[in-house]
Amino acid sequence: MIETRDLTKMYGDLYALNRLTLKLERGDVYGFIGPNGAGKTTTMRILATLLNPTWGEATVCGYSIYNNAQEIRRLMGYMPDFFGVYDDMKVTEYLEFFAAAYRIQGPERRRKVDQVLDLVDLGYKRDALVTSLSRGMTQRLGLARVLLHEPQVLLLDEPASGLDPRARIEMRGLLKELRNMGKTILVSSHILPELADICNKIGIIERGKLEFDGDVQTAIRKVRQHTVYLVTVGEGKNAAARELLEAHLDILKVEAREEEECLRVTLSDSVHDGSFIPELLLQNGLRLKMFKEEEIDLEDVFMGITKGITN
Ligand SMILES: Nc1ncnc2c1ncn2[C@@H]1O[C@H](COP(=O)(O)OP(=O)(O)O)[C@@H](O)[C@H]1O
Ligand SMILES: [Mg+2]
Is the pLDDT of residue 199 over 50? Predict the structure, then answer.
């Protein structure tokens, strides 16, 4: 649905985008993650046919950004990172204005406006002035606006930035709903955890270069090849458990975490399943109080990939 090859944008001798190659299949929700200045907005603007690349190829639904801008605009909804709303306009007037721009006419226009308002949960604000809306509501209104013409593909540039935690959760819910509707979505953020659970693929971009392209699990594995478990046994049994675990071939190392009375068990290379651990301990009369895989801080994954510290 979206494909780019060696997409490059230069400003003077700065590579805002450096040979970006991306592919989104129908129904993909692709998290485009990178720090400020990485090239996310540049990519979106090129795909939205608002900016010409210096070189490289890009197609949306098979249409080239060079020759078929009209078709692309009809099939895609682009929500920029900042968009103006107009003073003295009510929510419905604002949406009707854009519906008219998409040539949605007559009773169909009213129906469409109601439908998108319903989708983003802003029906109760239909008569409010757009300037009176909170940031979260304004973002939802922006999303409603790009949904009016029922695009198949959505480009959402940092839709959750600047939102408070509640509005962030609402925005995530909304993205899930759009995903369930089968839309193909390219959504950017400078925060990985914000997108990890709603995207089936992520790309990590820094200084115009795509440093990673794949699923979240693979990203995690790239930064931390070893699987780590946290184990707590009964009081005074730590030393015995440690000895037992250290002797096991599938375990690389065991570290004690004194303060928490907990053992941090790192599995050997290419071993990812630690379910043998409880059994091993029980067979040797060591009861488990706690056993779980150590949670991975997605922020660490992001930092690891962008700083190049990938093992
Ligand atoms: N019109 C422009 N003129 C010069 N440099 C630009 C222009 N637009 C963007 N850039 C530069 O291109 C790089 C990528 O910017 P951008 O795509 O906006 O990043 P992001 O959206 O990831 O924060 C940045 O270094 C930015 O300063
Ligand atoms: Mg940006």
Answer: yes
CA separation (Å) from 16 to 19, 40, 48, 180?
Answer: 10, 9, 16, 33
Which ligand does the CA of 38 lie closest to?
1
Is residue 94 within 8 A of residue 109, CB to CB? The reply is no
Domain that holds residue 205: 2-215
Which positions ≥6 away from 115 have C-beta within 8 Å? none
Measured CA distances, 35 to 40, 155, 219 (Å): 9, 18, 16
Ligand 1 pocket, residue 82 CB under 6 Å = no
Judge if 250 and 202 occupy the same domain. no
pTM (2 decimals)? 0.80
Mutate to test the pocket of ligand 1, among 42, 46, 81, 156 (most ligand atoms within 8 A of CB): 42
Question: Does 161 lie in the same domain as 137?
Answer: yes
User: What average pLDDT does range 148-165 have in this prediction?
Assistant: 92
Does 80 sit in the ligand 1 pocket, CB within 6 Å? no
